[in-house]
Amino acid sequence: MADQTIVEALLLGALEGLTEFLPVSSTGHLLLAGHFLGFQSTGKAFEVLIQVGAILAILTVYFGRLWDLFVHLPRSRAAQRFVLGVLVAFLPAAVIGVFAHGFIKAVLFESPMTICIALILGGIVLLWVDRRAEQPIYNDLIDYPLSLCLKIGFFQCLAMIPGTSRSGSTIVGALLMGASKRSAAEFSFFLAMPTMAGAFTFDLIKNWDVLTAADLPIIGAGFIMAFIVGVLVVRSLLDFVSKRGYSMFGWWRIVVGTVGLIALLTVG
What we know:
The protein is an all-alpha fold. The chain has one domain. It is 75% helix and 0% strand. It contains twelve helices and no strands. It has helices at 3-19, 26-37, 46-49, 51-61, 63-72, 77-106, 112-130, 146-156, 166-176, 181-207, 215-244, 247-266. Helix 1 (3-19) runs parallel beside helix 11 and helix 10 runs antiparallel to helix 11 (215-244). The longest helix has 30 residues, at 77-106. The two termini are 27 Å apart. This is Undecaprenyl-diphosphatase. The chain crosses the membrane at residues 48-70, 82-104, 110-129, 187-205, 217-238, 250-267. It is an enzyme of class 3 (hydrolase). It is a multi-pass membrane protein.
């Protein structure tokens, strides 16, 4: 295995951990970076499989809260409603993802131009939503009704277009329907667990026959970096968005998308 390839995997893993929970599209960043680095993964599996590192980052940071939910689940109506709400929000992406998997991987993952446009448009939407001055209706994600969870789940389906952002689409959906900025980000964390675990499992099954032992060091390196950086992001993001909102991430998306478009049009 070439040293340069491992270095690229570490860089892309750090990029995954940095961007997975931010509303900037980790997949879009990974595919654009891989395009310009000339990084090729078997069946585009690397970009999906290293997300398990980000899943473990959430589990690590939220272990105490998850354990508390597990302990109280048999007796607490609030805990039962919350877990059911996360599963309800996960359902639309699970159904559509199964049927659209081939098109997403074969067409959308191979279109850097689409990714750049989605980054820019998503940035504009994020700036607009962040600047709306309406008083939030829901300040605690435990109080989210099932109807709200389902609507957020449909918003999450927009993230099947690389560059849209899973966290970005769920956060925007939650904010538009009256959630506070902090609770929207936190619900996105919890929704990430079944969504990313499902994507990981489905993609692993689909690519099992084409993955080789040579792919394992690259995926492992990306996984480790995604976990380390993901822990740092999860620990700090909620306080950041509570104080400063999401406008910085909107501008981030616009800048990255614009630079990407210019690079594609000039160097290809």
